[in-house]
C-alpha cells in the first residue's frame, strides 16, 4: 500500500477558495481501481502547505490514476484559481506503508 502527499503552498488570502475547489471536487478518484482514501489537510501554522493525501493499494494503481482521463477531468477545476493563490509549486511525495495500526 502507498500514500501520496501532494504539498501545495497556498496564499492564505486564497485559502477559502482553495478549499472550496476541493469541496466541489468531481470525486472521480473515488471509483478508480486500487483507490482507498482521500484527505485534504489544512495547515495549522501560517506558511505551511496544504497536503492532499491519497492512499492506494499499489503504486501502479496511483500511476494508472495519474495517466487517466478521469485525472485530467478531475483536475480541470484546479486552473480556476489565480496564479497568486499559490506561493510556489506543489511537491509530490510517495511513501510505502510498512506499518499500520
List keywords for this structure.
alpha+beta, 101 residues, 3 helices, Alpha-Beta Plaits, 4-stranded antiparallel sheet
General description of the model:
By secondary structure, the chain is an alpha+beta fold. The chain has one domain (2-96): 2-Layer Sandwich (Alpha-Beta Plaits), CATH 3.30.70.100. The chain is 23% helix and 27% strand. It contains 3 helices and 4 strands. Strands 2-3-1-4 form a 4-stranded antiparallel beta sheet. The longest helix has 9 residues, at 15-23.
Percent helix: 10-25%
Distance between the termini: 14 Å
Task: Give the overall average pLDDT.
Answer: 93
CATH domain fold name: Alpha-Beta Plaits
Structural class: alpha+beta
Side by side, the strands of the main sheet go 2-3-1-4
Cα-atom radius of gyration: 14 Å
Q: What percent strand?
A: 25-35%
CATH class: Alpha Beta
Architecture, CATH level 2?
2-Layer Sandwich
Q: Tally the helices.
A: 3
Q: How many discrete structural domains?
A: 1
Count of β-strands: 4
Provide the fold topology.
Blueprint: E1 2-8, H1 15-23, E2 35-41, E3 50-56, H2 59-66, H3 69-74, E4 91-96
Antiparallel strand pairs: 1-3, 1-4, 2-3
Amino acid at each position: 500500500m502507498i500514500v501520496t502527499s501532494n504539498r501545495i503552498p497556498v496564499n492564505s488570502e486564497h485559502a477559502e477558495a482553495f478549499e472550496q475547489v476541493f469541496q466541489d471536487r468531481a470525486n472521480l478518484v473515488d471509483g478508480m481501481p486500487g483507490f482507498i482514501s482521500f484527505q485534504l489537510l489544512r495547515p495549522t501554522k501560517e506558511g505551511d502547505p496544504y497536503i492532499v493525501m491519497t492512499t492506494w493499494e499499489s503504486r501502479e494503481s496511483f500511476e494508472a490514476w495519474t495517466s487517466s482521463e478521469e485525472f485530467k477531468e478531475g483536475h480541470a477545476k484546479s486552473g480556476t484559481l489565480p496564479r497568486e493563490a499559490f506561493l510556489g509549486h506543489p511537491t509530490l511525495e510517495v511513501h510505502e506503508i510498512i506499518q499500520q495500526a
